[in-house]
């Protein structure tokens, strides 16, 4: 049993570009973007048996969340979910933040969520593995500045947060860090 959470109304940043000059992106204010031709586009993907709804990226609309303290409505009245999975990454550093899981019984709990820098996979000998125990979600063999290919690998990571399976999740409060990005969330 899983519930892929619709994040589209919370998207506030464009991080995936295409060769079409109308579809510009820069997720980190320095012009870097992930090339859409190498990523899923508005489709369900499985990473380590976890289903995610990857956003639509072949358009000018925003395609992910840049965290600014948003409260994501989940509305999972069902009990039985044990984990909340995130597909995301960070920029300009590796970050760990507190998020709040709000349950439908009006209780809440703070949990730690960490994402390594998107270019952590660039050169494993130099940068090392993801630092917060993330799994590798998607490896992108190059990035882009505008329409120019930049031979720097990028990564989007999978992170797991354990939740109370005897309670339904009402919402999730995200941290306030514009360099902390979320592409998808799934309850399992």
What would you note in describing this structure?
The protein is mainly β. It has one domain (3-182). The protein contains 1 helix and 16 strands. It has one helix at residues 124-127, and strands at 3-5, 16-17, 32-35, 43-47, 50-54, 65-68, 71-76, 83-90, 95-103, 108-115, 135-140, 143-145, 148-150, 154-162, 169-173, 176-187. The strands form 4 sheets. Strands 1, 6, 8, 11, 14 and 16 form a 6-stranded antiparallel β-sheet that branches. The termini are close together.
Q: Tally of extended strands?
A: 16
Class per helix and strand makeup: mainly beta
Query: Whole-Å distance between the termini?
Result: 6 Å
Strand content: over 45%
- Gyration radius over CA: 16 Å
Mean pLDDT: 92
Low-pLDDT windows of residues: none
Domain unit count? 1
Helix and strand sequence: EEEEEEEEEEHEEEEEE
Number of DSSP helical runs: 1
Q: How is the main sheet built? A: 6 strands, antiparallel
Helix proportion: under 10%
Inertia-based shape: globular
């Amino acid at each position: 049993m899983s519930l892929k959470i619709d994040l589209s109304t919370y998207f506030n940043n464009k991080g995936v570009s295409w060769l079409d000059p109308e579809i510009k992106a820069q997720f980190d204010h320095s012009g870097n973007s992930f090339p859409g031709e190498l990523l899923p586009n508005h489709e369900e993907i499985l990473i380590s048996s976890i289903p995610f709804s990857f956003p639509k990226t072949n358009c000018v609309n925003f395609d992910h969340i840049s965290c600014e303290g948003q409260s994501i409505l989940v509305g999972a009245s069902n009990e039985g979910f044990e984990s909340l999975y995130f597909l995301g990454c960070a920029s300009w550093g590796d970050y760990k933040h507190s998020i709040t899981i709000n349950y439908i019984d009006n209780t809440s709990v703070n949990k730690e969520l960490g994402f390594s820098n998107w270019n952590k996979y660039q050169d494993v000998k130099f940068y090392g593995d993801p630092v917060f125990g993330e799994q590798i979600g998607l490896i992108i063999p190059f990035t882009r500045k505008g329409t120019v290919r930049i031979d720097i690998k990028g990564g989007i990571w999978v992170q797991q947060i354990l939740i109370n399976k005897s309670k339904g999740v009402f919402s999730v409060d995200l941290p306030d860090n514009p360099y902390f990005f979320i592409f998808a969330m799934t309850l399992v």
